[in-house]
Recover the amino acids of this structure.
């Protein structure tokens, strides 16, 4: 896996608490410990947190994979179905790049709770473009 | 607009900084001031923040609207297309309930930057269900 | 697999040419032979044909699976990403019910061409409801 | 509105019965007369027909709009929520290009029945690319 020269620290993921487990596009993974400040009004993990995790891992794993070719990655669209509320423990998102094209990568992702139960399903399109002003 | 007895404070929205402007299902609105800690690695507002804003306002406005009938609202799916990156200023999301059914509400939402430029388009399905144990 | 009393013939699938291969929610499958009258202006299989196949198999397999409990199935939303154009041969869609809830089923589907290459990815939500006027 | 030199006849739209009403990206429109052979098993207009109409008008209106710049259009993803079943009369889809970028157009579309009731909401991403081998 190529290592970018510049760091890939993501401030919003620091706020959310995303733990980066794996950047391999075949089984990229992040995990999150559920905290009260990540919840919506009735005590469930906010869906926006799950969308954030999916977007973070799909974007990051694409970015790392295409970086050595002088390309950058940017989210184009995300679709998430919420299947089961999460209230405690951890959430883990595993994502797989199903299409790795010249201009777009398409990912499928699933979120599971601490008991391995499916909590959400996502699909994300990430656009790949030359990094402006960089020799590639 | 019916006012729930219990508060609708949303911890994750407090973290993100969501400002609640309007809960009317015809033109529900939230606003956010862009901060550095809401960004992804290359300095853009994280897409997950925009997804969060869309989900928050659609869920909240549905919840308030159906509360007096003894119903609760829960996000079922969200779809967001990102059109233009946001780096500074504010983001405002305006959402409209296009379908207000007995069991589902369907919303369209758009996010604009400080210059009124379209930054993202969302569509969200919110499920409406009886609140367990509550007379309705 | 329960067999409905009434036939499940689908007129639009007859027009399109859907071949029903498998109704098992773990690996439901349909196939289609690409014909010129299924194409869009520049000679590619029309994306609407692929959306139709995904919707048909997810709805049908849900309907068959819940029929004996006196329930009917209806498509609520569909999301499809098109990855590779199809111009000839066959298309096969395989779908898997990732969530089989009391009120909704959520499916993932993939379409492949004759050479097993991924042509499209779909996600579909199917609503499950009591059949009006039927004892269950 | 630029008129392509080559015809834009779409075989699958001929099968479906798409009537082209307007190609203006601000209010592109198609209409369809509901026929029995466009239905699914329980007598409703097949959702795939609605997805087809949305995809057809968004793709076509993009293609016409970018043709003079030597560009071609291709559907990348479609998202449709079905709000109300259609059983008879006509369906009309109106679509609006909300984003007209250098590489992608993003559309919102709504389908209405003969009584002007909302039947479905769509969002579609259309990719715009140079036409291979054509001077532009």
């Amino acid at each position: 896996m190529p290592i970018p020269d510049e760091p890939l620290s993501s401030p919003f993921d620091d706020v959310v608490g995303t733990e980066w487990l794996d950047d391999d596009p075949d089984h990229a993974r992040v995990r999150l410990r559920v905290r009260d400040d990540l919840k919506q009004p009735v005590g469930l993990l906010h869906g926006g947190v799950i969308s954030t995790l999916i977007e973070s891992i799909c974007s990051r794993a694409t970015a790392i994979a295409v970086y050595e070719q002088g390309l950058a990655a940017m989210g184009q669209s995300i679709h998430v179905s919420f299947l089961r509320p999460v209230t405690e423990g951890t959430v883990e998102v595993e994502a797989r790049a199903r299409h790795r094209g010249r201009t777009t990568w398409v990912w499928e992702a699933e979120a599971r709770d601490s008991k391995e139960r499916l909590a959400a399903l996502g699909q994300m399109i990430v656009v790949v473009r030359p990094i402006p002003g960089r020799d590639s």
Remarks:
- The first strand of chain B starts at residue 19 and ends at 22.
- Helices of chain B lie at 11-16, 47-66.
